[in-house]
Amino acid sequence: MPSAAMTMFPAPFLGSITEVCIVTPDHRRTMDGLLRLGIGPFQVFDFTPITVPTRRFRGLDGDFELKVCFAKQGDLVFEIMQPVSGKSLMAEWLHEVRFPAIPTAAFNSSVVTRRSLTIPMVMKRNNKEGIQHIAFDCKNIPMTDRKREMQARGFPPAMEGVWKGRSGTCTFCFFDTEATVGTVVESIHFSDDWEDPEHEWYPAAPKE
Q1: What is the three-state SS of 90-118?
Q2: Local confidence band at 10 (pLDDT 50, 70, 90 cut-offs)
Q3: Per-residue pLDDT tens for 131-168?
């Protein structure tokens, strides 16, 4: 029988980890380091207004541009993100730690006891890089349901967008979890007709 403490909290729904992302000011240096560990090769993409025409950041239209690199390691994807321009969680990660005044009462009060507000605070990170977010599949429920569930738990979208493939789209959403858990939670959905857009391979494409 579950304890009284356990019954206070919502049931898990994040599902499986699909991706781990390192944010860096130098994507090539980070790729070189991971290649030495046997992780790679990497697909290298540009997130721009053309490739990601729909962008939102903290509830407003976004202007972020990123260099994004992917390497598969078994069932897990290693991602590297380098901020290029605009406001983004990745730029914040390199330069500051944000502790916004989020009421923990944003949780469903019938499930979780209300507590006081956190104090707004920004601390300089001094260009420290590292693992900035972890992506979960949320058991492949529709993205609208993922957002609704995370919002109910007190974690609204902080940054989101729609990435265009050669065909199909990829919808991604980063939730505002850093102040509470120390890292960002992301969820991603690829359409059934997804094909990778134009990209480069580093250091070279894998052999067929």
Answers
A1: HHHHHHEEEECCCEHHHCCCCCCCCCCEC
A2: confident
A3: 999 999 999 999 999 999 999 999 999 999 999 999 99
Cross-strand pairs, 131: 22
Structural contact between residues 57 and 158, judged by C-beta atoms closer than 8 angstroms: yes
Contact 66, 87 (CB under 8 A): no
Q: What is the pTM of this model?
A: 0.84
| Averaged pLDDT score across all residues of the chain | 87
Give the helix ranges, DSSP H, for 115-171.
143-152
Under 8 Å between Cβ of 98 and 120: no
* pLDDT score of 72 more than 50: yes
Count each helix (H run) and each strand (E run) in the chain, helices first: 5, 13
